[in-house]
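Supplementary Note 3. Input sequence used for the single-chain structure prediction.
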Amino acid sequence: MTKSRKLDMDEKLKERFELALCGSKTSILDWDMVDNTLYVSPSWKEMLGYRDEELPNTTHTWKRLVHKQDVVHVMKSVREHIKKHIKVFENNHRLRHKDGHWVWILGRARIIYDEQGNAVRMIGTHTDITKEKELQLQYSHYAQILEQIQDSVISFDMDGFITSWNKGSKILFGYETDEVLGKHFSMLFPKNTLDLYEKMMAELKEKGEYRTEIQLRRKTNKPLYAVLSLSSLKDEDGNTIGFVSYAHDITEQKKVEAILLEQKNILRYQAHHDALTRLPNRVLFFDRMEQSIRKTERLGKSFALFFIDLDKFKHINDSLGHGIGDRVLKVVARRIEETIRKEDTLSRLSGDEFTVIMEDLNHPEDASLLAEKILTVLQKPMYIDEYTLYISGSIGISLYPQDATDADSLLKYADTAMYKAKENGRNTFQFYASEMTQHALERMAMKTSLKEAIEKEELVVHYQPQMDAKSERMIGLEALVRWQHPSRGLLHPDKFIALAEETGLIIDIDRWVMKTAMKEVSHWHKEGLIPDVLALNLSIKQLEGHNFLKEINECLTAFDFKPQWLELEIPEGQVMKNHKDSIQKLQTLNKMGISISIDDFGTGYSSLSLLKRLPINRLKIDRSFIKDIPADEEDMAIVKAIIALADSLKLNIIAEGVETEEQKAFLLANGCTYMQGYYYSRPISSELMRKFLQKKAC
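The predicted structure, written as discrete structure tokens, is reproduced below.
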């Protein structure tokens, strides 16, 4: 090869390395130690804020810019390497940027020796590691984890086949050169990221460069996270002839970040939550109060603050011990938490004192409805060890902004109202403003309105899809009643179903929903829209009605509705308390081809022997066990147990209240493939459901 030809090859090689290192905060330095001349790449000067012509290529340039505390250390290290005849050199030091700030540099170089063993040349790279160094300094106790390792430089052709593989690549990925040359670059990407690889290559070909943090694949399949920089290789005419990748391992950094984040979250959680009940503590309560005040003031709405004190709780601690008392408090916390809405905040202030912030309060009487629900759930018996315990509570309610506009006053007034409730005999609630307690009595008017709602056709049916999460296919839909109130707008069941059950109107409502939904679904079938199974909520009161079997037969006939299209959902708590007559009716329905599902499973007191006798086809996991997955280990254990129980009884199973990808993944991994919830769709009107089915049929 001629001398000129060799020089051309050297220039191309230099250009390739400049391109390979472009955008990676890395520069080339070449020190001729014989004549003490230094070549620095333009990217080195650019890293320090200079143009190429502003800095001469001399050792004086480096010495002028290096930090005084570092220059002695660096030169001493170089001498020690030469003395020991070490070829590979690595060092961290600081260089002054043109604007005056310090840039942390990772220097990596190779020292070249002549035949007599004299150091004649030192060539390597400078990498800007300012951000990494700042993180390292900030968390110095993790410095050992953040050890620097060799970087990877790989070139590959236009079709993605690897053409060069450096030593750093061997260290990083674990493959020898002959194992990868000629193989496709995508072999370094996990199979589940191949779509990302295609997208990355498309952008690289379009823009000429690409940089990202990404997970790559080692030969050992151990996790590898890297900063990956890709750029185009061009010939002398500017045509792209291939690509080069530069990968810097940040796996340990990611581990440290994860550890620090976990520790931060743990400390933050401990500082803001009660250790016993895991509820927000006093600190977080006041923070939530301030947030509610700002939000409510901005939206021009109202909210209620509940101060809940357990009646005679001290007797439990004194007679049974604090261990039993603590378990009672945990049960109380769970019951109240399951009673309030998701957007409400339940806190434990101290001892047996709890607070609830009920936001978006449309009417003061809505607060009284929630208070009644809380009092009701508190009165349910508690079974702790061999004890059957009964407890009640007194609730005080203050309103924002009617009673006060600051957190301290609202809490003080709610506390005052709570003592009014205790004076009135306990197991009741009181508003701070006495006239508000009177307003609660107006709830009776709601009962009249609800009865008229059926006659005035104010009720509507919404539908929520039920999905097979594995195939993403709809397997059915649940009919859910809504009340289109003339003055209060669209009301969800939690606003009136409890009242309907108290008054017995639930039978008329369930009958109306059954007829309306079966009629609509039958029409959809005739139109070729297949909604699969219609799930209807069935109250035990409706089932116990003398004419129920006759009514359902009439609906099947009148609407040409096939029994196999229908599934009846009965709450676990109701069916478990029922008698032989109800079980016989369920058996009759099942023989007709109608499926029977146990709704809200896990919240009642199921008897396994009774479950075996019931003619049921499916268990429906209650949303209260789903909402905290995967954060709550108890809920995960309960859900796994329910799935195992269903499997042993050869029953289908479906989970309701699925809202997140994590919940879906957990359920799938544990054998529950049928789901419904906001993750797929909120309950929607019949018109929207019809459009949904039309789209599905296309």
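Residues 453-697 form a domain with the TIM Barrel fold (CATH 3.20.20.450). Residues 251-272 form the longest helix (22 residues).
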